[in-house]
Amino acid sequence: MEIEMKIRGLMVDPTNNAPIVILKDVKGDSVLPIWVGLYEANAIALEVEKATTPRPLTHDLLKNMINGLNASVQRVVVSELRNDTFYAVIWLEQNGESVTVDARPSDALALALRSDCPIFVDEEVLRAAKVLPNPADQATSEELRRWLEGLNDEDLGRYKM
């Protein structure tokens, strides 16, 4: 089963300064942090803030190409968590047929924002993301999860990239 999520915000991990995209369940309290690269976080931040650039960036180009091929992005799904790596699928529709494309979650999320399409996370991914293989990391991870779940709008603004 897939759970619809929204991008709740972008922030910087206070422990290692890595960018994090925060996804939040539309109908519940589930929160999924996904650590992403700096360039991908910037692409997401630009679209969240509706900033314009003088020339199309990579995700703008991708959207333009999809539209130019008479296709549309229907949804993106964070579909798998394997070896501590998230995987995503972009669902496209072209001429009445569905096509799926493998993608990094950061790219899928940046494209979803530009295409104004829903974002989903597979329920198994949410379950797996809450379990850490190394018990020594459990406390740190659980503390981070509680901290992320407790963030309000002011906090997200304070840690904004």
Automatic annotation (TrEMBL):
Q: Extract one GO molecular function annotation from the record.
A: nuclease activity
- InterPro entries, sorted: BFN_sf (IPR036104), Bi_nuclease_dom (IPR003729)
The source's superkingdom equals: Bacteria
Q: SUPFAM superfamilies of this UniProt entry?
A: Hypothetical protein TM0160
Limits of the BFN domain: 2-133
* Family annotation (Pfam families): BFN_dom (PF02577)
Quote the protein name from its UniProt record. Answer: BFN domain-containing protein
What is the source species? Acidipila rosea
Q: What is the lineage of its organism?
A: Bacteria, Pseudomonadati, Acidobacteriota, Terriglobia, Terriglobales
